[in-house]
Amino acid sequence: PGNSDRKSLFFSFQPVPLASSVVSSSSTPLFLYEHQEADLCWRTVTRGHLPGRASLLLTDSHTHSSTADAQPTDAEREVWDQVDVVLKDAKGILDELQAYKGAGQEIREAIQNPSDEALQEQAWAAVVPLVGRLKKFYEFSQRLEAALHSLLGALTSESYDDPTQHLEREQALAKQFAEILHFTLRFDELKAEGENEVNNELANRISLFYADATPMLKTLSDGTTKFVSENKNLPIENTTDCLSTMATVCKVMLETPEYRSRFTSEETVSFCLRVMVGVIILYDYVHPVGAFAKSSKIDMKGCIKVLRDQPPNSVEGLLNALRYTTKHLNDESTNKTIKSMLQ
C-alpha cells in the first residue's frame, strides 16, 4: 500500500494494549490449572437428581480427582480428538491476547508528525503484526464454531433419551463444551478491558468479527443458532435441555457450600461462572421464548443471585454479558424482578 493508505490506517487504528493487570502473574497456564478442579466441578454433579428436569446424581468427588479422569470413550474419541486440537490452540490465543502490547505510541507519533517518513515507517512496522493478529483471532473463531458444531452434534444426538444421559455418559465432550464457553467469555473479557483503546472503525474494516463488543460470544451464539436451523429433524429440546442442564449443574455447584468448599482455587469458580453465563446466553438465542421467560428451564433468578453473591469486580463482565448480549432480556414477558436484578 502507498503512503496515503498507511496514514489513513494510522488515523483510524488503535490496537488493544491490555492493562498489565490482566496479564497473569502465575506461571501456570489458565488452560491447565483451573481445569484440574473444573473437572471435579463437572464430575461431582454428573449423576442422580438435581432440581427440575436436570436430574443428575451427586457423587463423591473423591472418586474423580483430576482432569486425567475425564478421558473420552471410544464413541467420543473422534469428536474429542477434533476439538482437543482447537482447545490446545485456544490457550495460545489467550496468551497472545494477554500479551498484546499494542502500538499506541508509534501511531500517535506518526499522526502528530505526518511528514516524518521515518516515524511513518516505524508506525507501519508496528501496526502490520497487530493486524495479522486480529486476522488470526478471527480465523480461530471459525475453528471454534466448527468445534462447537461437532460437540452439539454429539451432545444433542438421539443416541440417548435425554440430555442428562449425554452429560453423564459423554463427560469428556461435556467438559470440552464447558472449556469452549470458558475460553469464549475469557477472550471477550480481555477484549472488553481494552475496549476504550479500540477504534472500531478500522477493526470493522479488518473484520466485523473483532468490531463486535463480544466477538467470540457472537460467534458461538450464531453458531448454535445455525446448528439448530440446519438440524430441523432434531428436536430443539435436545439442544435447549442440554444447555439448561449445564446451567443448573454450574449453579448448584456454585451455590451449595458442600460443593463450593471443595474448590481450592478462585479460578475454578471463575470457570464455572463463565460456563453458566455462556450456556444461558446460548439458550436465550436458540430457545423460541428465551432464557428469561417464565417457562424457561433455567432458574434465572438463582443464576443471577449466584453472580451477585460474588465479589462485584470479579463478575461485572459476566453481568454485562447477560445485560447486553442476550436476546430476550428486554422482552415484555421478562419478569420485572429479573430485569431489576440485572440493573
Automatic annotation (TrEMBL):
GO terms for biological process: regulation of actin filament polymerization. It comes from the Eukaryota. Keywords: Lipoprotein, Membrane. It is a lipid-anchor. Residues 68-192, 194-339 form the CYRIA/CYRIB Rac1 binding domain. Coiled coil: none annotated. One of its GO terms (cellular component) is membrane. One of its GO terms (molecular function) is small GTPase binding. It is found in: Membrane. InterPro entries: CYRI, CYRIA/CYRIB_Rac1-bd. Belongs to the CYRI family. This is Family with sequence similarity 49 member Bb. It comes from Seriola dumerili (Greater amberjack).
